[in-house]
Amino acid sequence: MSNDLPVQKRYDFVIFFDVTDGNPNGDPDAGNLPRIDAETGHGLVTDVCLKRKIRNYVGLKNNDNVPHSIFIKEKAVLNNTINQAYLSLGIDLEKDPADKTDGTKRNKKGQGQGKEVGRAKEFLCRNFYDIRTFGAVLSTGANAGQVRGPAQLTFARSVDPVVALEHSITRMAVATEAEAEKQSGDNRTMGRKFTIPYGLYRGHGFISAPFAEQTGFSDEDLELLWEALEKMFEHDRSAARGLMSTRKLIVFEHNSKMGDAPVQDLFDAVSVKRRDESKPARGYNDYIITIDSAQIPQSVQLTERI
Q1: What residues does each domain of the chain span?
Q2: DSSP assignment of 195-229, as one string?
Q3: Among 60, 94, 116, 261, which residue has the least CB neighbours within 10 Å?
């Protein structure tokens, strides 16, 4: 659905990224504390968080223009976007459902059916990078079906347990006159900030060629995904997130559409350990990442993009 042919091979990948003195993914249900596995103390970053950063990078690079527009973006009204797809195709969802002169059907709620759904779904896949890549539920209003995307990510988990620190912070101002009166003009606002001193996180991802055929996810789209994974933190800076960087992206390219090896065998070939177990890690150089090439079949090509 983009200009190139859909991806013809399966890909799996391992990504390592780190955070220094920041909160990589706050949990709104826990006062925005860094997400942590309660049993092991390992830090977590959700797949949704990583997809958000990829979407933001692609949107910034391409000015949110087709065929790289972003469907799931800040303040978007998704049903309006789906409706616009039908309007762009010249389909009137308010037309009398009994009128079948154009060879299509509509239900009484103004939702497309049959061929209309397929046309709308194809239009949205063609124009929106994140639908083409990650899929989307497009049936929340004017029905355009559901899309299962070829690219999927896991939660990222820190290599070692992390420590969440709480810091008191002060703003030398207040928001209202009432607050100023209470402080007799001292005008200070106290707050809290949560950080992790250091954490190296490992995440995994998968690219399915059969699903790429369904959405039109092309080799050009794939290259843009790799670029976004490498650079997604470069334009996502904030005081809350500290210093975050992609450190390593390891890609396994299969020689076939369905794959040539179980994914876990490939992921098990990648190991990481601390150089000195007697002291806490405080930087990427405190770790060693190794790849056991003997575990990787010859039909699977290994590429270390970073």
Answers
A1: 11-304
A2: EEEEEEEEEEEEE-HHHHHHHT-BHHHHHHHHHHH
A3: 94
